[in-house]
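user: Here is a favour to ask of a fellow structure person. I have my own habits and do not want them to colour yours. Could you put it straight underneath, so I can go through it closely?

assistant:
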Amino acid sequence: MQLQAASADLPLPGFALRPEAPADAAFRLALFRTSRGPGWDQLRLPPDLLARIMEQQFHAQTQGYRAAYPAARLEIVTVGDDKPVGRLATDLGADALHLVDIALVPDWRGRGLGGAILRRLIGEAEARGLPLTLQVACDNLRAQRLYRRLGLEPTTADATHLTMRWRPAPPEPA
């Protein structure tokens, strides 16, 4: 199935989701490093120390997600011949489908793939009659714009994160 990117001149190939496997650990760590934001690149630390800190942060995030969302669906986003280009973590609760984490490799950002993944999640939430919820860093304005374009609305905020929610249409009266 061919999906169209947000921009007509950037065709978007189909994507697939597959369960994470232990063999994905190196890819996931590399993806984590590229999705931490520009502040990490500006730290004046020896490269080996920065690499160790990033690895510790990656393991802390992994353990934190497993503790907070033990039943989460952890998936690798692939394109083409099972080429990994991202990660998706979602948690289906009784009252919402929660997007725990989404990350794409830099070459696939801004090409419509994130929007396509979010539209699929919105479709899943809608089919279940549940809202889709997520948290996004307050300084991640690009992601916030995408989420707003897709119909997510802010619900709460703290010093570092904004909580957003997409709500399905209410059921029609019988």
In short: Residues 116 and 151 are 14 Å apart (CA to CA). Residues 47-68 form the longest helix (22 residues). Confidence is low (pLDDT under 50) at residues 1-10. Helices lie at 25-34, 47-68, 113-128, 141-149.
